[in-house]
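Example 4.3 (complexes with small molecules)
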Amino acid sequence: MDKTTEVKAERNLIGLTPQDYKGRPTTLCPGCGHNVVSNQIQAAVYELGILPEKVAKLSGIGCSSKSTNYFLERSFGFNSLHGRMPNLATGASFADTTVKIIGISGDGDTASIGMGHFKHVIRRNVPMVYIIENNGVYGLTKGQFSATSDLGLELKHQGKNMLPPLDLCMEALISGATFVARAFSGDTKQLRELIKAAIKHDGLAILDVISPCVTFNNKDEALQSYTWGRENMAPIQDIKFYPSSAEIIDRDMPEGVMQEVELPDGSVIMLRKIERDYDPTNKHAALDLLTESYKTHYFATGLIYIAPKSSPTVHDLFDLVDEPLNRLTLDRIRPSEEALEKINLALH
Ligand SMILES: Cc1ncc(C[n+]2csc(CCOP(=O)(O)OP(=O)(O)O)c2C)c(N)n1
Ligand code: SF4
Ligand SMILES: [Mg+2]
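Answer. The structure with thiamine diphosphate bound is encoded below.
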């Protein structure tokens, strides 16, 4: 190529290109909502300028859980057992506190077999991003109802769903989550900003992404379909993430009532209120919103709750050393001979 016409590759803060954040080619169905989430994760990590090697992507079992293969190939990854991503994440976060954990799960993986683990990882406030790719169906095993399928939903091989759904944002909120958001694969801009904010959150961030399964649950009237989502999605705010307040120069958001939420590292989530006066730092307001949304099928998306101040993470509570535990040398992790002797004597 002629030097004068050579196109310079776009680079981020640490000199990497978008290509450095790609994963393997997807094997999911064309149009699957989960592919949108993968693309937005790689875009968010690229834009934040995080080294891919400083991310661990963990998952359970499902089409959603397969999707960790399709972003950040240079990152560490582990596809675990069904519903056990939170357990793996807890262990990994203890081993290396310097790595950002992105956990991917499905509605089957989280809301059925993994529900207990979901609750406890939240209760422990393991610092990580927990994304549920929620399509209201078990996609991988060919379209059974999940615990988030809507009451009355009719699926080809299943008939009518007779059970009421669980709301994973509500479950997260009442379990003590300090960051709860809902997004939709049909709105990539909002999704990307929420992923960035979740990555920068100090503690566990829950992101429930309505991510349509185009093969088994995409009839126009189904709540987790693209058509229903596009027609009914109601963002509760415009959201934009800024790495620092100094960078809020373009103010490229439409005019309106603004709310800035500053994160502990100095980054800022800028919110412009839409229609209703909603404060995501108010837990009661978040509970009210989710109750209304559950009752009336109000598809509210955006930052539903962020705790006004940081809560201690499991690492703070256990007073971990600053260095990653997996890099401590044996002489630092083995008890001394005297200490062992003391323990043995105490057991006599
Ligand atoms: C212990 C165990 N039970 C059941 C299964 C079968 N199984 C595999 S994936 C899955 C559900 C996947 O649904 P979801 O998490 O919603 O992911 P999706 O495929 O919809 O993205 C089930 C029940 C399994 N792999 N392991
Ligand atoms: S079966 Fe559904 S969830 Fe699985 S890849 Fe296909 S569209 Fe996605
Ligand atoms: Mg599913």
